[in-house]
Amino acid sequence: MKSIALGFFDGIHLGHQEVIKKIYHYDSYLVTFDISPKIFFKGYTNCLLTTNFEKEKVIRSISPKLKVEFLVFSKIYNFSAEEFIKFLKNLIDFDVISVGYDFRFGKDKSGNISTLRDLSKK
Questions:
Q1: Which of 20, 26, 44, 104 could, after both became Cys, cross-link 109 (CB 3.0–4.6 A)?
Q2: Helix (H) / strand (E) containing 114
């Protein structure tokens, strides 16, 4: 069974670590983004706690067997919530997805945990 942890994971704080622990086994992926939505949409600078290199290094120290996949945000930001999940399923045919309690996804942040539950029934 393949599983993914999905989010931006800046700083890899204890909440992030809990999301990661829920899916950790030999065929697990951490799916994150190459750029923060805050930078992409609002042009913020100096808003990151970790660079992508540092993020991957910390993730590997926590879960060495976890595969890390960086999505190019500029190619997916306009997907609807359903299009985004279909894209992920085509990329990694996962069975389980772990996200934080406040995770939002899809164009205009239209998707949330309830959306994930609804889409899982399809």
A1: 104
A2: helix 113-120
Q: How far is residue 88 from each of residues 3, 36, 61, 71, 72, measured CA to CA in Å?
A: 11, 18, 25, 10, 12
Tokens 């670590």 -> residue: 17
Structure tokens at 3: 């599983």
Residue for token pair 């290199």: 53
Of 40, 37, 56, 43, give the one whose Cα is nearest residue 103: 37
> How buried is residue 111: exposed, middle or buried, by Cβ count under 10 Å (0-12/13-18/19+)?
buried
Residues of the chain short of pLDDT 70, as ranges, are 26
